Amino acid sequence: MNQIAPRGKTDGLYDRVRHLVPEMEWETFVEDIRAIETLKRERNAVILAHNYQTPEIFHCVSDIRGDSLALAREAQNTDADVIVMAGVHFMAETAKMLNPRSTVLIPDLKAGCSLADSITGADVRLLRQRYPGVPVVTYVNTSAEVKAESDICCTSGNAKRVVESLGTDRVIMIPDEYLARNIEAETGIKMITWAGHCEVHERFTPGEIERMRADHPGLVVLAHPECPPEVVAVSDFSGSTAMMDDYVRDHKGGRILLVTECSMSDNLAVRYPQTQFIRPCNMCPHMKRITLANIRQSLENMTHEVTLDPAMASRARRAVERMLAI
Ligand code: SF4
């Protein structure tokens, strides 16, 4: 064994993730973790990590953790000179939009999102022409260009509140068709939808959930609202990753199936060891492009900087800030 691993373990970090990260794997992480901590101090940088990041990123180097909404709020408030987004590209754009003073870095430019890729600003303009006067609510999982064409943004955590705040009987809700259908079922407000889907959540099926219930008596099923409505219908609770976190915190123990991306259960298992997390899960290939090694490179080389056209960013910011004000 080399010298680095034992010292890495004694600083307490390994204790956080020892149930998830084998010792041999940890040894490969330690050097990057130390280098990242040093670089953060030198650059006055913070790392924002989405709930779908792997435990060694989420629990060992990130400063701010959460769902898209929490990361957007924190990006707005931080006085760091550099923000590294351990998430996907649209999240880095949102951080830049809300904090233009900071340099925003994404460790891998290919960390995209099937929802964000499903729609363009031109598509939104066409929808407006087809449905004049109907407000456009845009999920944050979109490019800044699409946000700039929207009236207001939403996340999976506040979509119901945002839609109800508009006081209309119809809204254009883009691009996640399933989120829109799930919110329509909750609110009774008619949704004009777009055929965008999350490639992680669309793969879950009601049959899979029923099989898991048969195999694990007493199972409580929490589904993300990006899942198809038939999946949400056979679940016990539906909510954003932050709402899942709150649910697990408030209902200590038991057997829980989180119908979402794989790292969510891993990350909650660190904080709630008394809860038994039953998996299957689906992995997001975009989130998994972010690694300790490319976070380190990102801070060493100040890559890849996310920039936005100021006029477009200002229009997009309006839609995001309108959401944050609700
Ligand atoms: S989990 Fe789905 S919505 Fe989230 S980044 Fe991956 S593809 Fe996009």
Automatic annotation (TrEMBL):
Its cofactor is [4Fe-4S] cluster. It comes from the Bacteria. Its main location: cytoplasm. Its EC number is 2.5.1.72. One of its GO terms (molecular function) is metal ion binding. Keywords: 4Fe-4S, Cytoplasm, Iron, Iron-sulfur, Metal-binding, Pyridine nucleotide biosynthesis, Transferase. Binds 1 [4Fe-4S] cluster per subunit. It is found in: Cytoplasm. It catalyses: iminosuccinate + dihydroxyacetone phosphate = quinolinate + phosphate + 2 H2O + H(+). It is an enzyme of class 2 (transferase). Catalyzes the condensation of iminoaspartate with dihydroxyacetone phosphate to form quinolinate. Belongs to the quinolinate synthase family. Type 2 subfamily. NCBIfam families: nadA, PRK09375.1-2, PRK09375.1-4. This is Quinolinate synthase. The gene is nadA.
